[in-house]
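INTERNAL AUDIT FORM
Audit reference: QA-55
Scope: verify that the stored structure record matches its stored sequence.
Auditor: D.O.
Record contents follow.
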Amino acid sequence: MLYNTRLGITTALLIALGTSAQAQWPSNPAQNLAVCNTTGDQAVPKVAAGGDGSTWCAWFDNRGGSYAVYAQKLDPLGNEAFAHNGLLVSANPQSTSLVDWDIDTDGAGGCVIVFTDTRAGGDLDVYAYRIDGAGNFLWGANGVPLSNNADYEANPKVALLSDGNFAVTWSRLPNSGAGAVHVQKLDPAGTPQFAGDGLQIVGPGTEKPGFSDIAAADAGGWIVGYVRDIGTFASPRHLRAQKFDSAGNALWNGGSPLAIYDAASLSIAYQPVVKSDGGSGAVFAWHSAIGNTFDCWVQRVDAAGVEAYAHNGLQVSTEANMSKFDPSVAVLPGSGDLVVAFNKRNLAQSQWASCVQRISVAGARQFTANGVELLPLNGIPKQFERCLPLGNDAIVLSCEQTNYPAQGLRVLGFRVDASGANVWTGSPVVVSSVLSQKDKIPVCIDATNMARALWDDARNDSGDMYAQNLNADGSLGPPALSASAFCFGDGTQATACPCANNGAAGRGCQNSASTGGAQLLASGSTSPDTLVLSSDGELPSVLTIFLQGNAALATPAVFGDGVRCVGGSLKRLYTKNAVAGTATAPAPGDPSVSARSAALGDTIGSGTQRWYQAYYRDPNLSFCAAPPGSSWNVSSGLRIDW
């Protein structure tokens, strides 16, 4: 048993999810979560949010002497679903150099992974795998081949579409002649929907488009952004885009690619940002240099392919004599505003700052013309700025090389509100205090509002995989549960027990097994939802029903041999049998409390409150003679803040 001072009640640690009962997300930034710390080099990490607080991690791994693909699933508390150091996805031969790849949730507790290898010859081909939450390979042990030709193909990206299908894009770069951006659509069973190597986007002449990315759009469609030509150093590396409907028909610009940016060439080997706007359009972000100064730009394109801002984009910061690099964009779900994190440097690139800007849907810069410095401009290098949406705020992560010129980065976190202020006390939050070489740092977030980061970390050897969560309140580790006793526990319940069977303080009415009565306890978290309710002090093995209300009764009511305080719209969440006098719900395999509530017609939103009690059988209440006992009783209550 653990006394949780935030709850003000004794809380049973009853939850056991995944393969371990111990919560694994560390609260100590000097520890972090070792997802893979075996021998050899682990590199190029990828991360995806499962939507329920679970996290999929994947990486390339040469523990066996050549690079293979591994994956791990973490439950909402950070417990590993598979054996430590990961599930082997593919040991097929890789090229001597690794290219980029991708992972996305499959919307059903699993993931889809796309990558390249040389199993079919010396060139790179593209393969897709779907793995469920139990580690089963739904598209076969060797995945689905998306290409099989003699050309070099690289950097596949995947998106879960609104209709449950998946779209994958990659670049084909032949030694001579024209190249193409390819797109293949896969149904949930992994069956390709387009013939051959899929749809193609080609440019004029011998152009070789590359660095494509993909975002889901409305009605099962998708949007692809890519660099126009990467064939030579002098190629016109402009940003292009196209939207497709679910059948693969090109929708923008009469079927021709839409020019997003053509004022100058993008940097060599640069991957521009392509994100869904949350509906039928997309948001693009990139950096480029006109002259010797780099700037960051954003553009919004609506469903019809119309640019919201001036052609060639909106400058994120107009500050003179400073270069800005590597924009990371969060699209805020409520307002549609963009929050952009970026790296700022002086022209000599001897001073660095981590900055953030907010841009309204109409294109107004909200944090002055220059944005806000989260980490100030000085001689300490900063890099890997990452931005995630959190309601009307944004979470920003940045790495700082505090022991410069020695190699080593710590990871810092900020929550930035609509005014540009840091919400968290003592900001920044130290996410990882270990000064080790770190690389890539992909991040994700979902409706649970828990951010997760994964990175390549050399604290032990040439590279391991470490991860860390960051809660909405700025804490690390399992999110704190905000719950308080409201019935028999805080003095608000004034109705006497019906049989003069008042229980002990903080407990429900006395029953035939306990003079103290039953007490409702809670453990786990509401974000992500790992909440577990337990009614302690019942008879050894009686039927118990867990109640949820969306209000507290102004006047508590006699209910059987107890008192009911929950009111409003009542839901019977679970029916369970007590074990040794304690009933617990949900059990492993049951829907979570929020999922069960939604199934009963009560969707629990962030920031809402719900009230809970349990009532249970008690046919032996011998001291309740006049009137006779009613054969059931009620626990104390809890109010839980979601």
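Auditor finding: record pair retrieved intact. The longest strand covers residues 322-331.
Action required: none
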